Amino acid sequence: MQKKMRGIFTNTLRARFPAQQSTMPLRHGHHLFLGIKTNTLRSLLLQSAPISSLKVAWRKDQRLDGAIERDKRWRMCFRVVRELLNEPGQRMPLRYLEKRRERLKLPIKVKTFISRYPSLFDLYPDLLKPKSQPVPFLRPSPRLLDFISHQSRIQAQHEPLIISKLCKLLMMSKDRVISADKLSHVKRDFGFPDDFLCNLVPKYPQYLRLVGSPGEGQSFLELVSWNEEFARSVIERKAEEESKLTGIRMRPNFSVKLPPGYYLRKEMREWVRDWLELPYISPYSDASPLSQASPEMEKRTVGLMHELLSLSVFRRIQVPIIGKFCEEFRLSNAFGNMFTRHSGIFYVSLKGGVKTAMLREAYDELGELVDRDPLSEIKERFVEMLDEGHRDYLEKIRMKREAMKRDLELLAKRNSEQPMQEEYEEEDDDDDDDEEEEEEKEKF
Question: Which residues form the PORR domain (predicted)?
């Protein structure tokens, strides 16, 4: 073991102090090893160890899991809405939607879903075929159509933001080009319109160019010109803002904040401390000279992930979706371990049976977003529409229950009055008999 440790330190010292090694035989390297401070040796050992061997245990964060759990309802509703809007004429038979219930991951029956969220769809009878019997059809409700118009207005208002996001994604990529199909997979994560490739990209030929035909698997979005204003990351912008406020030049770096009760092993804390001291590497810089296993490449990759999550609408993206861009962003196959390795910067949620990478600094102690993306207004308006419809649904249930209660009370009252009426009728019969007896006596 001692020979192995001595070999590690000797090779490390050769790389760090070539001049000293040239005047000292290899077999005497341990004398130099004994003359260096313990902290320096520990730092050299940590930096010489492969990054992939640095393990950090995953720990659940309920507040961040809660942020995903709270969005579960509106995401489910949006999936169903998207299914209808993608149909020709934006209408479909009810039974078609019932057949797709499993694929849409609906936990309740379709009819129950429609009644629970009445603001989404209108039910009406229509013919599947000529001379056939009418069947229930679905179409967007007036409230949903109003939301769609509102969504289009928000996206049009923030077109420059959407274009900057597209340019930034291309500028961080290896060849400044990304498959159009891959970008379509992340359009909801970044707030891109459904038709951004056909209608939005052609409006900005000075920045973007679409090569090939969308939908054929051979189309690509290409960066036309480099914009230095776009090439500044969120980390760099924050450092510039702090420098202006304090008058002191701030060095760009990551904000590391572990959740309460979360502790790293001593060796890992020291590795993170030394790693943070490395110069910040912009995700927009050329990463080709960097070795994939170097701490510098780790710094650049963390910066790239930080920028990706900062560009997303909700500051989180599912890890499998990020994995689709391994080639474009020069990510290793084990890039997912990086999120756990840097638990003070990221969090990986397992909610919904899928890994979701989240940016810690973007959420407060209650799991609410601190810095809201302007495009998040679309989600807020959609949730507001759902709440309005759900309140109507609850009001109908309340009125129905009150009507049933009134009917039961009226029925109980009638049942209680019936025996009294029978008793009165019996008393009247007795009185009539007495009168008849008196009359007979008088006649007699």
Answer: 60-390
Counting Cβ atoms within 10 Å, is residue 430 exposed (0-12), middle (13-18) or buried (19+)? Answer: exposed
Q: How confident is the model at residue 223 (pLDDT cuts 50, 70, 90)?
A: very high
- For the record, the structure tokens of 188 come out as 């909801």
Closest to 9 measured CA to CA, from 29, 23, 27: 29
Q: Average pLDDT of 112-138?
A: 91
Helices H, strands E: what count in the chain?
Answer: 18, 9
Terminal CA-to-CA distance of the chain, rounded, Å?
137
Determine the Cα–Cα distance for residues 140 and 119; give it in Å rounded to an integer.
9
Q: Which residues pair with 177 in a beta bridge?
A: 222
Residue 49 predicted with pLDDT over 80: no
Cβ-Cβ contacts under 8 Å for 61 (sequence gap 6 or more)? 259, 347, 349
| Burial grade of 386 (CB within 10 A; 0-12, 13-18, 19 or more) | buried
Six token digits for residue 99: 């057949």
d(CA 270, CA 292) in angstroms, rounded, equals 22
Question: How sure is the predictor about 420, in pLDDT bands with cuts at 50, 70 and 90?
Answer: low
Give the span between the Cα atoms of 95 and 271, in whole angstroms: 58
Q: Is the pLDDT of residue 434 over 90?
A: no
Burial per residue of 172-201, b for 16 or more beta-carbon CB atoms within 10 angstroms, e otherwise:
bbeebebbbbbbbebebbbbbbeebbeebb
Helix (H) or strand (E) holding 388: helix 376-443
Please name the helix (run of DSSP H) or strand (run of DSSP E) that holds residue 124, with its range, or none: strand 121-126
Helix, strand, coil percentages (3-state) for the chain, rounded to 5, are: 55, 10, 35
> How does 240-253 read in b/e, with b if 16+ C-beta sit within 10 Å?
eeeeeeeeeeeebb
Q: Which helix (H) or strand (E) holds 318?
A: strand 316-318
SS3 343: coil
